[in-house]
């Protein structure tokens, strides 16, 4: 099969965003500074490879602070952000904590708080039970923010306060789907207040645009990323909607579908914002073992965003 020629369109930008790089660096620097173990509440980013790598360096992952037996050890909050109650609990336990919340998620938190203080009732567009949504809703008193997950819910939504209503969104949503939900809300509430700057983050937007750009030229599209990674799952949806119906997520337990690949001439590859580039390299290596591969990297925009780690780690 080796002589079968396969053209790869490699989507760029792809992979790690600045928030993910910063979160991983925070865990590594915390281990350097405080020694092992350090605890991390929730997966620091949604990627098994990254989590396993950090475990091997001395990170212990927990879902709740109560699980931490030695409360003299530092705890790190994941890039997705946490409800207000969590830092308060850490203080009550006298724990040292480092907040690795992505600055773009923190921006949404501050926005939600300011709108609430200004007397607005809030709508959050996002996915239930996603840690980022739990974190954003947890910035405000219960009942002051409502979650809308899809167009059906947007159409059904009614708010007692027709005048002072505002929305914020999860940072890793599909740009197009969100746009449709916002249109529905604006139709129902002409005075709805929108964020000054879109909440969907630059990396989510760029990766979706890059996939859209090449999807219709591909017979098959692969997104490297985890099943619980919202932005990776959205990229699969974007590829399908943009003209490549055969789009699949390749996660830690996936078998590479060589039968499908051998019937394809052009395949697209991208990766979610929490997937390290080594996983893309390994995937391409597997393809090179079986096919004659040519790679064309299609970049739509250069990213140069960098977020600094907290001063206490420098």
Q: Can you walk through the features of this model?
A:
- By secondary structure, this protein is α/β, with parallel strands linked by helices.
- It has three domains: 5-16 and 202-299, Cobalt-precorrin-4 Transmethylase, domain 1, CATH 3.40.1010.20; 18-99, Rossmann fold (3-Layer(aba) Sandwich); 103-200, 4-hydroxy-3-methylbut-2-enyl diphosphate reductase, catalytic domain (Cobalt-precorrin-4 Transmethylase, domain 1).
- It has eleven helices and twelve strands.
- It has helices spanning 18-34, 48-57, 85-92, 103-117, 131-137, 151-156, 175-188, 202-215, 230-241, 258-262, 277-290, and strands at residues 5-12, 38-41, 59-62, 75-77, 97-99, 121-125, 145-148, 165-169, 220-224, 247-250, 266-271, 292-299.
- The strands form three sheets. A five-stranded parallel sheet has the order 10-9-11-1-12, with helices on both faces. It has a four-stranded parallel sheet with strand order 3-2-4-5, sandwiched between helices.
- The chain is flat.
Silhouette: flat
C-alpha Rg, in Å?
21 Å
CATH superfamily of the largest domain: 4-hydroxy-3-methylbut-2-enyl diphosphate reductase, catalytic domain
Q: Largest sheet, described in full?
A: 5 strands, parallel
Oligomer kind: single chain
Beta strands, count:
12
Q: Mean pLDDT, as a whole number?
A: 96
> How would you write the strand order of the largest sheet?
10-9-11-1-12
CATH class division of the largest domain: Alpha Beta
